[in-house]
Write a structure and sequence with these properties.
The protein contains 14 helices and eight strands. The protein is an alpha/beta fold. The strands form two sheets. It has a four-stranded parallel beta sheet, with helices on both faces. The radius of gyration is 19 Å and the shape is globular. This is CoB--CoM heterodisulfide reductase iron-sulfur subunit B family protein. Keywords: Oxidoreductase. InterPro entries: Cys_rich_dom (IPR004017), HdrB/HdrD_reductase (IPR051278). Pfam families: CCG.
């Protein structure tokens, strides 16, 4: 039985359109392979990555109410492939939906600011969903398994959930925020072996990187070392900011902790798309700082 046609208002965020362009490419390749339609919100703004509220909660709420309103105009759920965007926009949506009952004047204030800029008002009529949970709950693991053409047998994958995906919102209906299994279940669906390790639900260190760089790199190094010690062939993350700290900065991390690491860090859409037979080149696997060749060689995929 084929999954129903799925359509989302796609919020790619900033990092996937810049430093992690391969995430943008692999998300497009994955959704095309699965027959999922994405309508990109090209007028959307940066979610702020949690920094707007340091100056003004109203600023964060208004900017992201506008992002949500763009999806509401299409009568579609807002889909993101960034845990940080999920956490920030999902929290704003959750908070404003509650305010519609408890503090309607605040929602009116937000919408008044949007109206001044000629933007559609926030209605609180849609949901914000990370691609991981869209695939798990809307598409379904059984359907994904049926579409696998290259089982990732023997590949040991360590999930790195990070902070925002699991605990930025009050309610997490799709997973346990402290003992999640969503990514591990996805690994099993595509034939890979999940690796469990202590740091998989902890912070990658990225938020510290601008003012406590060594501490940030030590955190990243600790997680990578832990995954390696538990036998991981790669770390898979649903967050491009985590990817930056774990992959792009891994050479710097190695210098700080004085240890060679060399562990490939994959974006979640890349891993799933590999199992669907999408070529490594189309997924941008040659764009990583840490070579992904060991992963492809273990899977017998030419690169």
């Amino acid at each position: 039985m084929l999954s129903p046609n799925l359509k989302y208002a796609y919020y790619p965020g900033c990092v996937a359109q810049g430093a992690c362009r391969e995430l943008y490419l692999s998300t497009q390749a994955l959704t095309q392979a699965l027959g999922i339609e994405l309508i990109e919100l090209k007028k959307a703004a940066c979610c702020g990555s949690g920094t707007f509220k340091e100056d003004s909660q109203l600023l964060e709420d208004t900017v992201n109410a506008r992002n949500i309103a763009l999806a509401e105009e299409l009568n579609l759920p807002l889909l993101t492939h960034c845990s940080t965007c999920q956490g920030v926009i999902g929290h704003v949506n959750e908070n404003l939906q509650q305010c519609q009952t408890d503090n309607p004047n605040y929602v009116e204030q937000v919408n008044g600011l949007l109206q001044k800029e000629g933007c559609s008002p926030y209605r609180g009529s849609t949901e914000v969903k990370h691609i991981l949970y869209a695939l798990l709950t809307d598409y379904g693991l059984e359907e994904i398994t049926q579409r696998v053409t290259k089982k990732l047998t023997g590949l040991k994958c360590a999930a790195f959930y990070g902070c925002y995906l699991l605990r930025a919102q009050k309610y997490m209906p799709y997973d346990d925020p402290f003992h999640p299994e969503g990514m591990e279940n996805m690994f099993r669906a595509v034939g890979a072996t999940p690796i469990y390790y202590r740091g998989r639900t902890q912070c990658c260190g990225w938020p510290l990187s601008s003012y406590a760089t060594n501490e940030s790199f030590k955190m990243a190094g600790m997680h990578i070392q832990d995954a390696l010690a538990n036998g991981a062939d790669c770390i898979v993350t649903p967050c491009p900011l985590c990817h930056l700290n774990l992959d792009s900065r891994q050479p710097e991390v190695e210098k700080v902790i004085e240890q060679r690491l060399g562990l490939p860090i994959l974006h979640l859409p890349q891993l799933i798309a590999l199992a669907l037979g999408v070529s490594p080149q189309k997924l941008g696997l040659d764009r990583h700082m840490v070579s992904t060749k060991p992963v492809l060689e273990k899977l017998g995929i030419s690169h």
